[in-house]
Amino acid sequence: MLAPGARVRFGGNPEVSAAEPAGRMTIGPVPPGIGRPPRRKGDRSRMPSHTDLRIAAESEFDRAEFLALYASVEWTGYTEDPERMLRGLVNSHLVLTARDGAGTLLGMARTISDDAAVCYVQDLLVHPGHHRAGIGRALVEELKERYRHCRFVLLSTEAESAPGGARNHAFYRSLGFLSLAEKQMAGFGLPRNRG
């Protein structure tokens, strides 16, 4: 179990750090190649409707802040086990956040990647109070730019027939994603581990 105030580095083991506020976890410096690429002059394609929105890679995670975001979209697999949620964030290849000018967390995306061939978008979520404002699109566009060198950028989502599934499918298609079947591929997974 990771104790509040634990300091965790990429590929490292937890070590106690009295300097960390309770409920906050830090991972070491963001790995090379993960820095925000410069925006091309005049490029507005990744600019959401929030004029003061900041998309940035983060390596510190406030337990309460991220729990509140996951709870807002009812992702109980994360909220029922905050320690697992924090381990997932810490062990991600990249965590991007979307914050307003006041620093409020509005959304986030995280990836699992070898940073060469495959990038898997593990989570993409936006607080429901900020849906349809371009935040999810801005996060995905930033991921597409950062991982443009990878052969595959993959994600999984609900079936199109599930509640909200049609909306999610339309969103990902609008960003250029195709179903695996359309790419003449298939995906497989083991049964969900609830333990």
UniProtKB/TrEMBL annotation:
Q: Where is the N-acetyltransferase domain?
A: 53-195
Q: What is the protein name stated in its UniProt record?
A: Ribosomal protein S18 acetylase RimI-like enzyme
Source organism (scientific name) = Kitasatospora viridis
Q: Which Gene3D superfamilies match?
A: 3.40.630.30
What keyword terms does UniProt attach to this protein? Ribonucleoprotein, Ribosomal protein
Q: Quote any Pfam family the record assigns.
A: Acetyltransf_1
Q: What's one GO-annotated cellular component?
A: ribosome
Q: Which PROSITE patterns match?
A: GNAT (PS51186)
Top-level division of the source organism's lineage? Bacteria
Q: Where is this region: Disordered?
A: 1-49
GO MF annotations in UniProt? acyltransferase activity, transferring groups other than amino-acyl groups
